[in-house]
Design goal:
The protein is α+β, with helices and mostly antiparallel strands. The chain folds into three domains: 116 residues, no CATH class; 68 residues, no CATH class; 252 residues, Fido-like domain (Fic-like fold, Orthogonal Bundle), CATH 1.10.3290.10. It has 20 helices and eleven strands. The strands form three sheets. Strands 6-7-5-4-9-8 form a six-stranded mixed sheet. Strands 1-3-2 form a three-stranded antiparallel sheet, with helices on one face. Helix 5 crosses helix 6, helix 14 packs across helix 17 and helix 15 runs antiparallel to helix 16.
Length: 484
């Protein structure tokens, strides 16, 4: 038996409902609505079955305006439906706002029973209507959010997708008497195409699009979460102890070695040391050898590593210049040039290549506010890794940019040893997927603490210290770092 039962004008059906009600097999939870569920509250039952209720009690109603986008009640428990009259109907836990207007028309889709949902073009027009109410009480999402949704279509489907939407909206506007709303939609789309003045736009995303710097708003949301967490914490300072050129180079060697090992460029430590000391690549592995050399040349140069960006343009310039050095021998990977096609790692898709410049530029807003060296380093490393702006070498360049922040403030750099690789990669992924910055920051703090012990004039002594702490072990072979 269904969880929801509706009152009926059929005498036989009404008799059956009355009988079940008398036998306490069902209970009344709202006018004309009964339920077999005695465990949950009426509001819980009605919220879960609201579309079925609308489809049965209000045939030819159209889920419209903001509700056609959200498919759920607002935070103030309101749902907006176009029907044959204007009226508010309060049910347990939810208020249905009926708005007088046209019933289902071509393009609207049947949702459940006799309930329809407004077509894409119709819902855009409806959400551009004038309304005095704001927030969750408003029937519309507001122009900034509509601009962002239009930008999503442009990003995913291109100009053809937006033009198709505009054509459909033009025809519908005549049927729905929404010519004014169509004109506003046309202006916004024109501004997104940069054929109309961008001052009409309201959202940051749409404005950025109109001036040629569109960005990935979902990534910016994650960056903001990380920024808020970092900005509200105090981190322990760990001053640089590798003050001599020799100890700085010793640290830099292992920094370059482990950074490449994380990315699958696997050498024996002695092989990598010979490559760095002689500057001569292993003939059978020229590309991999140059990757180690390129990384080492960057991280062993204290003057280069002191350089941090002062503005958005310098940020992009430094990033590209360092990448050009890092992958100088891999001309097929376009060193120093932002990617021209999308990339991914497993099932993780990175920022669309068309949104790289805009997303990096936008992310710099939060970077400028951070003052703590470790906070800046953690933020910088994540945004570069998350955007993945280059065809290859993204992880290595992200860690170079991270450590430059620390060198600039005379703080110890961070090494991610092989044994710690799994923690490093998993916490990055958790921040991306779950928007949880805590594991990532804790992981990096632990690596920071361990790295502060790595200072020695003797390469052999430093190697022994790392070896005694299982730093060279694969994550599934060795235990985690032991910090005395």
């Amino acid at each position: 038996m269904s969880e929801i039962i509706f009152a009926s004008s059929d005498p036989k059906e009404w008799y059956r409902i009355s009988k079940m009600l008398k036998e306490k097999k069902i209970r009344k939870i709202a006018p004309r609505i009964y339920s077999t569920n005695f465990e949950e509250t009426p509001s819980e039952i009605i919220k879960r079955n609201i579309f079925e209720i609308l489809g049965n009690l209000y045939p030819n109603a159209v889920l419209s305006h903001r509700s056609a986008f959200e498919f759920k009640p607002t935070s103030s428990n309101k749902l907006f439906v176009t029907y044959k009259y204007t009226k508010k109907i309060k049910l347990p836990g939810i208020t249905i706002n009926f708005l007088e207007g046209k019933g289902p028309i071509e393009g609207d889709n049947k949702l459940i029973g006799e309930l329809y949902v407004a077509s894409e073009a119709r819902r855009f027009l409806e959400n551009l209507q004038i309304t005095k109410k704001t927030g969750s009480d408003s029937k519309t999402l507001g122009i900034p959010l509509i601009e962002e949704k239009l930008d999503d279509i442009l990003r995913i489907k291109g100009k053809e997708g937006l033009n198709s939407l505009r054509d459909k909206a033009r025809e519908l506007s005549k049927i729905l008497n929404m010519e004014r709303e169509y004109e506003l939609l046309n202006i916004i789309i024109g501004a997104l195409f940069t054929t109309k003045p961008s001052k009409i736009l309201k959202s940051d995303l749409a404005i950025s699009r109109s001036i040629g710097l569109p960005y990935d708003r979902h990534r910016i949301e994650i960056f903001e979460i990380l920024f808020n967490y970092l900005h509200n914490k105090v981190f322990q300072e760990r001053p640089e102890n590798n003050l001599t050129p020799n100890s700085f180079r010793n640290f830099a060697f292992f920094e370059a070695y482990f950074s490449n090992y994380i990315e699958g460029t696997v050498f024996e430590v002695s092989e990598a040391k010979k490559i760095v000391d002689t500057g001569v690549p292993i003939p059978s592995r020229s590309g991999d050898s140059h990757d180690v050399l390129g990384t080492y040349r960057l991280v062993s140069n204290r003057n280069e590593m002191k350089n941090i960006p002062k503005d958005e343009n310098e940020f992009l310039s430094i990033l590209q210049a360092r990448h050009k050095i890092l992958l100088s021998a891999r001309t097929d990977k376009h060193p120093g040039e932002f990617k021209v096609k999308n990339n991914r790692a497993g099932d993780t898709h990175f920022v669309d290549f068309k949104l790289v410049r805009g997303t990096l530029t936008r992310s710099f807003i939060y970077y400028k506010i951070l003052t703590d060296a470790f906070a800046r380093a953690a933020y910088m490393m994540f945004i570069v890794s998350e955007v993945h702006p280059f065809e290859d070498g993204n992880g290595r360049i992200a860690r170079v940019m991270m450590n430059a922040e620390l060198v600039n403030r005379n703080q110890c750099k961070i090494i991610i040893p092989t044994v710690y690789r799994e923690d490093y990669l998993l916490t990055l992924k958790k921040l991306t997927r779950d928007k949880d910055p805590v594991p990532y920051v804790e992981m990096l703090s632990k690596a920071y603490k361990f790295s502060s012990y790595l200072n020695n004039e003797s390469y052999e002594e430093l190697y022994k210290y790392l070896e005694s702490h299982n730093a060279f072990f694969e994550p599934d072979e060795g235990k985690h770092l032991i910090i005395d």
